[in-house]
Structure formats: C-alpha cells, structure tokens
Amino acid sequence: MSSAAPVVHGLILAGGKSARMQRDKATLLYQGKSQLDRAYELAARHVPKVFVSVRSTQLDDPARAGKPLLVDSVDGEGPIVGIRSALAADPRAAWLVIACDLPFLSDAALEQLLAQRDPTVLATAFASTHDGLPEPLCAIWEPAAAPALTLYQQAGRHCPRKFLSTHPLRLLEPHDRHALDNINTPEEYRAALQALDAIGAVPGALQSRRIHIQYFALLREQAGRSAETLETRAANPAALFDELTTRYRFTLGRAQLKVAVNTEFADWSQPLNAGDAVVFIPPVAGG
Amino acid sequence: MRFRFTDIAIDTAAGRHELLNPGAGGYVSFEGWVRDFNEGREVTRLEYEAFQALALKEGERILASAVARYPVKNALCIHRLGSLELTDLAVWVGVSATHRGAAFEACRTIIDEVKHRVPIWKKEHYRSGDSGWVNCERCAAPAHEHAHAHDPAPS
C-alpha cells in the first residue's frame, strides 16, 4: 500500500431493521457481549477510528450510546445509505465497513483485508465462499466509490453486492473461510451460539495460531513424525486432536488419551494460545 | 530429582547408597524386569519411551507425595528408556524408613502410581515378529471405553 493511500476508518453498520431476526441484531449477545460491542472492538484493533452507523431515529438508543455515531445523511434504503453517509462525512477517508451480523468475524480476516487492500479500485472485498460474489459488508470502500454509489442509488438500485460485482474492485479469497458466515434468523443465531461454544471462541478466536506438537508411542508412529509445528484454527486441544485425527487417522480416541499443554496436564477445553506446545498422551505403560 | 531416567543399566547400588540414613532401620526396593510373555504373547524384547519433561514432574510429585504420606526417610525411582532385553532391569524403586512397614507400603504405592500416571510407553516385540504398544493396540477401537482402567502388565 503506498503512503498516498487514503486513511481507513471503521464503520459498524447497526442501522438495519433485523426483520427476519425479529429483534435488533446489534444487541444479540454472544458469550455475554453484544454483537455491536464485539464488532466495534474487533474493528478498533485494526483501525484507529471506528464509528457506528445509525439512522436518525436510533440516536437515543441506549445500545448504541457511548460510541461515536455516524448518522445517515442521505435518503434511501439498505446498507448503501450508511456507506454513502460515511463517505460523505469524510471524503478523503476509506471505510472498513462491517455488518452487525457476523459473529465469526476474526482478526485474521481483517488483517488479510487490510494487508491486501487495493486503494486504486473502488473497494477491496472477500469473495463469498458460497457463490464467489463480493461480500460488501465486510469490505474496504475507497473514497472513489462515492460518486459511483450516488449514481447507482439515483438509478433506483440499492444492492451493494450487485454494485461491487459491476465496478472495479479487488476480490480476495478469504483465508478464514467461516469469518463471514452471517446470521439472519433466530435459528441461525442459536446455531452460531452453539458453534462458538463448541470451539470456545471469543472474538477473533477463529484466527489461526502456530502450535507445536510432539508425538509419542503409537501416535508418533501413526503421524509418521515425532514433532511438528502447524498453523491451526483449533481453539482447544480437543479441536486440535480432531483435526489431526482427520489428517493421520489416529486409532486412539480422545476418551483414551490425556493431553498436556506446555509440559503440564491440561483440560481438553483449555484455550490454546499461539506458541503453545501440545502433547497427546496415549495410555501409559511404565514399569 | 528423586525420579530419574537413564539410557544405560540402572545402578541399583548407587541408588541404595543415596538412601542410606542413620535414622533408617530398613530399606525396601522393587525391581521391574523384562519378562518373556505378556497377555498370552511371547515377548522377545521391549522399547521404552517417555515424555520426559512431564514425566519427571509427575514422577517427582508421586515420590514427594509418598514421602509426605508415609513415615519414610527418603524414596527414589529410576526408569530405563530405550531398547531392553529379557531379564533387563526396567524400573527400580527404593525407600528407606525408620520401620519396615512404612517402607513396604510406600514402595508399593510408588511403583503402582508410576505405572499408572507417568507418561512412559512400552512397546513389546513378539516372537512372532510383530510388535505392539502396551495398553494402546488392543484398545484402539474408538468405541472402547476402559483403556485407562487397564492395569499395565507387571514388568
């Protein structure tokens, strides 16, 4: 990225009507924290200034209070209104736009987006893992997109995905393939809660980390190595063992093993940190 | 460290010497030897390996807890690693105490706990030419649930 590239601000879209969810998606709780707070804190780890996009009717909403608000300044429907309002509020800035329904969004995804940003096109966005089309609501919108968006809306159109599909953009293959799994219905919310619980996730926990693994006895023979270091998104030893079992077809099950993290016995659900050393312990047979 | 590994023959005389204590009226030791059969198979030799960083800590905890629990003067445990032949000494435990009763009990507890808790693995090589990791192979079906309940076969 050249030094002439516009500065990037964060914009959390929290003005949606959440019609299918039947309640405000910004206030849905994940592990005790609202999705709005999660998205805001995540973005704030990557860009210096973050704003919350709201409609004028949401100015007094307590869920949105206490954060820098950016009120819609243009008419219309849908997320393009918030994006256009932000571009108008600071015409020299680019905007990292993040929707308020992405509970799996990770630090790794935002790092990739910012690192591979192309300021010479209108936007940098991920390709959907479902249909390959650009994901407009976790994307960097450049200042140059403003006039084209205005024309697009004046033509009576309001789908940001179709806008991006028909304008110059940088399309990225996401390394974190689940980061943009969004939720729109109460059923999807419940499933997301379960998924986050299962992987022990906190915001950003889906990013991969470097873990050292040592193998002993039967596991060493089946893995064909006594040690390795790998990048994994496994949040805890249980998920890591499942991942490795897929790779090496271990015949021992988790119920038969113990696990050690950093040379001490550990719980299967203990969160893994970058640089941790993990050893899976087959049934012992000293003496 | 009162719990140790060695790649060469265990020096039991040196271990015993370390336990000498003017207040001790007795000394009990246990030696685990490589035997020529296990669970109906003819065994020709053994290989031991350990996750040493954790095994040393866990072994030390076992010895410290035995010394705290029984009225004994001191306790040591030395375990072999690598390839062992029949009749070789695989593990040695020594305990000194004021009276013999506590020495016997502590020695028994230590060897039982070491076999049950310390991350050490034993591979048996059989007369028939194949080999297997003790407690791992027969139980390797995912549905099997009591692998850890197996008492490892005596050495």
Give a nutshell description of this structure.
Chain A is of the alpha/beta class and 287 residues long.
Write the layout of secondary structure elements.
The complex is a heterodimer of chains A (287) and B (155).
Chain A: E1 8-13, E2 29-30, E3 33-34, H1 35-44, E4 50-54, E5 69-71, H2 79-89, E6 94-99, H3 107-115, E7 123-127, E8 134-141, H4 145-154, H5 160-165, E9 169-172, H6 186-198, E10 209-214, H7 217-223, E11 227-232, H8 237-248, E12 258-261, E13 265-266, E14 277-281
Parallel strand pairs in A: 1-4, 1-6, 4-5, 7-9, 10-14
Antiparallel strand pairs in A: 2-3, 6-8, 7-8, 10-11, 12-13, 12-14
Chain B: E1 3-6, H1 12-19, E2 26-33, E3 37-38, E4 41-50, H2 52-69, E5 72-80, E6 82-85, E7 89-97, H3 100-117, E8 120-126, E9 131-133
Parallel strand pairs in B: 1-5
Antiparallel strand pairs in B: 2-7, 3-4, 4-6, 4-8, 5-7, 8-9
Helix pairs in contact in B: 2-3
Task: Explain what you see.
The complex is a heterodimer of chains A (287) and B (155). With 287 residues, chain A is an alpha/beta fold. Helices cover 27% and strands 22% of the residues of chain A. Chain A is built from 8 helices and 14 strands. Chain A has a 7-stranded mixed sheet, sandwiched between helices. In chain A, α2 packs across α4. The longest helix of chain A has 13 residues. Chain A starts with 7 loop residues before the first strand and ends in a 6-residue tail after the last strand. The model of chain A has no long low-confidence stretch (mean pLDDT 89). The relative contact order of chain B is 0.24. By secondary structure, chain B is of the alpha+beta class. In chain B, the strands form 2 sheets. In chain B, strands 3, 4, 6, 8 and 9 form a 5-stranded antiparallel sheet that branches. In chain B, β3 and β4 form a beta hairpin. The C terminus of chain B is likely disordered. In chain B, α2 runs antiparallel to α3. Chain B is built from 3 helices and 9 strands.
